[in-house]
Design goal:
751 residues; alpha+beta; Topoisomerase II, domain 5; Gyrase A, domain 2; Topoisomerase, domain 3; 5 domains; four-stranded mixed beta sheet; four-stranded antiparallel beta sheet; 35 strands
Amino acid sequence: MGKRLIPPEPIEVQDVALREALEERYLAYALSTIMHRALPDARDGLKPVHRRILYGMRLLRLDPGTPFKKSAKIVGDVMGSFHPHGDQSIYDALVRLAQDFSSRYPLVDGQGNFGNIDGDNPAAYRYTEARMTEVARLLLEGIDEDAVEFRPNYDGQAKEPAVLPGIFPNLLANGAQGIAVGMATAIPPHNAAELCDAALHLIDKPGARTQGLLRYVKGPDFPTGGIVVDSHESIAEAYTTGRGGFRVRAKWHQEEGARGAWNIVVTEIPWLVQKSRLIERIAELLNEKKLLLVGDIRDESAEDVRIVIEPKTRNVDPEVLMETLFKQTELESRISLNLNVLVKGRIPKVLGLAEVLREWLDHLRDVLLRRSNYRKAQIENRLEVLGGYLIAYLNLDKVIKIIRTEDEPKPVLIRTFKLTEVQADAILNMRLRSLRKLEEMEIRREDKDLRTELKGINAVLASEPEQWKKVGEQIRKVRDTFGPKTPLGKRRTQFADAPEHDLAAIEEALVEREPITVVVSDKGWVRTLKGHVEDLSNLTFKTDDRLGISFFAETTSKLLLLGTHGRFYTLDAQKLPGGRGHGDPIRSFIDMEGDANIVAMFVNTGGRKFLIASHDGQGFVVNEDDCVGNTRKGKQVINVAMPNEAAALAQVAGDTVAVIGENRKMVIFPLDQVPEMARGRGVRLQRYKDGGLSDVATFVAKDGLTWRDSAGREFSASWKELSDWRGNRGDAGRLAPKGFPKSNKFGKTLG
């Protein structure tokens, strides 16, 4: 049995505040995730694990053209020397570097099963082999020439590069994906030749901005091809700010068959989409009868992608058919752009295209200076040695005599021939066989060549324009290697404007378009009636329930609902229950809190503006498009906390605001006193001692204010008659005009 060990008592116990200790440790974890896991370095575009894999492969001499070695050997060496975080994570990273459908310019040349575009897993690392590609060699070029800084590895037994020389524009060329603590990065791949052209332009014009660089960098270039259907303005804004996204569609064509039959053939799919999962999804929609225009789908892929889609009938418009598929499947994907990178390896920052290229160029210049200084030191050392060799050649007999006769020949040689220690050591360490090489002409020729080279290096080190000229030469070589005429450098992703089809036709293809009447009860039960029903007096409701809201819509409509807790929810009219029975609780379609009630519900038409207000009299103007949420949880627009709640919503239709409180006091003021916001608490609309806000309305001042009573009768007051209630935002107001409804509501419905 093992011996039980009792831990020793601590020598000193320190009291530490739990909050401070937790904050310190969480911050350390967050920084570790940001610096050493999730975000790539702006200079070489690599995360630590990828950098360590490439450096480990270099140590194993796995250059392009050399024999492959087992991936298990690579993973083991990398884990043992540089990355002690598990063999599977290292192998997964290595696999992604080798997949030509994941990496635009693979850094690893894999042999064996490294997975496929269907999403199948690669073989275990004991069955696969790997070596570096030419791209990886370029990233490592000059690393033995003091091109970059080295730092101790995790256990201090070896050193690893803090960054790679990175002559290839890897950050943008291959992209990166990662999620850190409180931040993320999403960089799609680009065309290397285009990036080199943009970098050369930036060298010629250092002040160039992103807009000017977009003449060269057209947009992403995905390894799986596809078509980007965003506008030039949208792409330009994304690259300028460093945040945005790209709509990428599958590439397809119509293939004619016999007797007028035809099929759709998809040959390219969006990046990072698993082909097998895509086909499964389309098949599921077919079984659920949600693809009314599609008859069948089959996968005929071999080496290339070939997905065949059969139409339901020959009369189907192929473009409308594809639009329905783009709308419902991953045949259209949104690829995010978030240029969040580590600047100088330390500072996480979101950069624009011009800033990213500038960081890469500055790095290349630093590498050039370091390599030049390294070579300069080598040449100076060699020139010193050659000077000693020349002296030895001219005085060979005397040198031999001193070495043979003197006990300590080194100081004698130094004293006799006025040598340096380096020269004396070189002479003493010289082999006898080298004596025949000590020919004066050869020494002087090598000395001349080295001095010429040294002069060139000194010229580069002394002149910044010369430095940028050298950097430009390096970039041109990369551009020529991966130019548009090469198989790897040829652009794969195309650009096109999204086809403008009749939205009604597309909606009709997805859902049959019919008029309906939406009915919502006070208790929150919803149903739809066929057609536009004016008279709802015959409708029945549950006990203690009654009609709350009703409005006209269509089966293809999107509906917006505002709850008292300030959240907007988006509903599909087609998914609501029919008119039989009492309907279903609206909470079965959205995640609305149990204590929340419905403030307003209406058809989303887009582009309108609303005045939203809370019970405590605060509010602001919000754009209708900012109220649309894509999840069941909705979208928080007005911030309220119990007992305060959202109380009123009115469409902005005029230049003046009318607010009435539960105390029947009303105030009127200009609309321009209310700010437009996307989210927040807003500003004070009316001041109360007791109660709160009851309703708001907007109107055109010259037309006067109108309201409706409970019987539906309309009343109005001219601008002159409203003089007693005119004031400023935040006033208490005066008692409402005579005849104003006792409900304290203007009785206006949302259009």
